[in-house]
Write a structure and sequence with these properties.
Two copies of one chain form a homodimer. Chain A has 427 residues and is of the alpha/beta class. Chain A has helices spanning 11-17, 28-54, 65-74, 77-94, 133-146, 165-174, 184-193, 210-219, 244-255, 270-283, 290-300, 309-319, 331-336, 352-357, 393-409, 413-420; strands at 3-5, 102-106, 109-117, 120-124, 150-155, 178-181, 203-205, 224-225, 233-238, 262-267, 301-305, 323-327, 343-346, 383-391. Chains A, B: Pathway: Amino-acid biosynthesis; L-histidine biosynthesis; L-histidine from 5-phospho-alpha-D-ribose 1-diphosphate: step 9/9.
Chain lengths: 427, 427
């Protein structure tokens, strides 16, 4: 991994610091056709695309009770136990995100905000090589806590028409109502428009490849969607007190996800930077995903040297990364200066994997600099609010002048009239 | 306005009930070019488009202190007073939406959610014929309450290079920091990428025409955006106890906004339906915006007859309209059955204009059926959350097995390794 000066103006460093996540137009045409086909031809279209993309012929998409039972039987008990531990921790953190409404009452009038769960939610869960049961927990549990009645999950089948066992176990453990063997843009389209077999949902959440992301973007408005996630990223803020071996391990953990993953260190210590490089060379050969890691380091890896640690913080806030790890002398104080980040992991013994699997915080986080304005998935993403207003005749009479003045100022005469008409004689 | 049976399967009624708000592709090409031009050429491009679309040549876009002072001098005191009343009510309702973080602490570990305001927000406020100072209040005040430091407003100038006085007054009253005379897709692009004069923001909110909406959609991801609003709509749920004259007035108030606005009545009373028709014919000639109202009624107006009032509620929940008015015998009870709506106005004396100008609830509401999953603009739209995790060595040792089990199950060996390495001898 290359060392850069923070003042470096090269394109390569700029590409790493200013990640952005703009939709690719190349796949848009393909995805539009798929969506249209599913909208028009329903399950038949879904079946055709499943054959084409997943290599299996399915007539019935829904996972049966027998399949769930078999999944539990075929899953190691220690995996089930670990999922149960993770579930409990996720619940403990997310339960505090519940939102309640409020009502401001006066004589003869009230204004109110009612909070309700979204009725039906679809979870998109990737399958195949990247089957992550933890993703099921992270997406389903906040929905369940919000009170969503119907939590539908879709995930692509393998060539045998099966779903990864641990995904089914995680779905059952989380409280997902129904699981369907369908993935890709066709799955997103089925959730957005509904088919005979697959219910139409109100919102779709969950990660996916660029076809899935593009499909979500295109059906957004027809249904709600969560954020469009880009490739994952970590920035490690470290000073000379940090352990270079731990940092090297954490950089590799990030990079193994994806050749597009970004692993960055910000430090004021050249000596640490060089030690990290040497630890990487010592550790990389033991990695099963060495090829991916090296490619990711090449493309989106950097050790950036700053004059002072405050400069490092400034760069972090500009980057607004998905994950930040802070390994400095006073990591808690240092972390308080970070205003733009999806999640922050403090100290030598909080590698990011604590957040992925154990701590209880959500690992669905804003990427590509969107932490400037976006947040991790939460219970709020599964709630909606309705405003309620009640005025009596007396209340309206007090409000009359203000309403008429503003409506007339805006040239909306019928708005003013809708008030005045209520005070005409005979009404 | 035509009367339909709720069982009617006609295309016309279906068009009215199933409004959707899909982006038009026709304008996308134009808007993409504008965005690219502003991104590359900054203020020069903005200036050229302002000349082209707004018919005025501007070198400096920012509104000066003198212009603000003049706006106050030239605005009627009763308008200023009305805006101040509205502001106070909006603050009173929105202050309750503030969100605080939380921290769950145990020995040697904590998990935390920190809530912070978004740093810089851009408000897009339409100008020209539709200059609505109330829209400034509704967009700016939640941002100010959230604690956003820099609230930037843009709005298109008129041919004399001026901004409507009441918009400037509303901006000053709300606490907007800076106002720029720029509109359209070029304004959105300037906020998304920044120019020499116009600051880059983190999120853009506010309504606009299809060019503005398309531009917002295209820069979404680079910056955050609020919902893309479609044409406005009201559904009035009424039984035979309702006053047909009030209903006629409220339908017209909705329709005067826009030829695309939708005004719908759901009732079980044919006699009420017919009286509404006759009240409309009596009242419509006094309307300055008669032509718009008639066109809107023609295209998206309907009185729909249901067997029972419960059927009416079912249709409302399917439509998920922006505004619902309930004028029935027990309107509060009836309103409780409505689960999908942006805002609900209860009883004979709560016309929707109470919510637009006075009550304090937000009038930026989800349209086109999106109330199934979206909500009115609120303080939450200007806040973001960061998760923080701290584990000590001891805490991590307890978590170790769970993390390793799940990471290995997911094939993410470097994730497991990032934990195990911390417990190797010598570390």
């Amino acid at each position: 991994m290359k060392i850069y000066q923070s003042t470096d103006q090269s394109n390569q460093l700029n590409k790493i610091i200013s990640r952005s996540n703009l939709p690719t137009e190349q796949v848009e045409k393909v995805v539009k056709e798929i969506i249209q086909d599913v909208k028009e031809n329903g399950d038949l279209a879904v079946s055709n695309y499943t054959k084409k993309f997943d290599g299996t012929e399915l007539m019935n998409f829904e996972v049966s009770e027998e399949e769930f039972e078999q999944a539990f039987q075929e899953t190691n008990q220690n995996v089930i136990d670990a999922l149960l531990v993770a579930k409990e921790n996720i619940e403990r953190f997310h339960i505090k995100q519940k939102l309640t409404g409020y009502k401001i009452e006066e004589t003869d009038q009230f204004i109110q905000q009612i909070v309700r769960p979204i009725q039906t939610v679809g979870l998109y869960i990737p399958g195949g090589k990247a089957a992550y049961p933890s993703t099921v927990l992270m997406n389903a549990i906040p929905a369940i806590i919000a009170g969503v009645k119907d939590v539908i999950m879709i995930t692509p089948p393998n060539k045998e028409g099966k779903i990864n066992n641990s995904l089914l176990v995680a779905a059952k453990i989380s409280g997902v109502n129904r699981v369907f063997k369908v993935g890709g843009a066709q799955g997103v389209a089925a959730l957005a428009y509904g088919t005979s077999q697959i219910p139409k949902v109100d919102k779709i959440v969950g990660p996916g490849n660029m076809y899935v992301a593009t499909a979500k973007r295109l059906v957004s408005g027809i249904v709600g969607i969560d954020m469009i996630a880009g490739p994952t990223e970590v920035v490690i803020v470290a000073d000379e007190t940090a352990n270079p071996r731990f940092i090297a391990a954490d950089l590799m953990a990030q990079a193994e996800h994806d050749e597009m993953a970004s692993s960055v260190v910000l430090t004021n210590s050249l000596s640490l930077a060089e030690q990290i490089q040497s630890e990487i060379s010592m550790l990389i050969d033991e990695q099963p995903k060495k090829v991916i890691i090296e490619k990711a380091f090449d493309q989106y890896g950097a050790i950036i040297l700053t004059d002072k640690m405050d400069d490092a913080i400034e760069i972090v806030n500009k980057m607004a990364p998905e994950h930040v790890e802070v390994m400095t002398e006073n990591p808690i104080e240092m972390a308080e200066k970070i205003t733009n980040a999806g999640a922050i992991f403090i100290g030598e013994y909080t590698p990011e994997s604590v957040g992925d699997y154990y701590a209880g915080t959500n690992h669905t986080l804003p990427t590509s600099g969107t932490a400037r304005f976006a947040s991790s998935l939460s219970v709020l993403d599964f709630l909606k609010k309705t405003s309620v207003v009640y005025f009596s005749k007396q209340s309206l009479s007090k409000a009359k002048e203000t309403i008429e003045t503003l409506a007339n100022e805006e040239g909306l005469y019928a708005h003013a009239r809708s008030v005045s008409i209520r005070f005409e004689e005979g009404n």
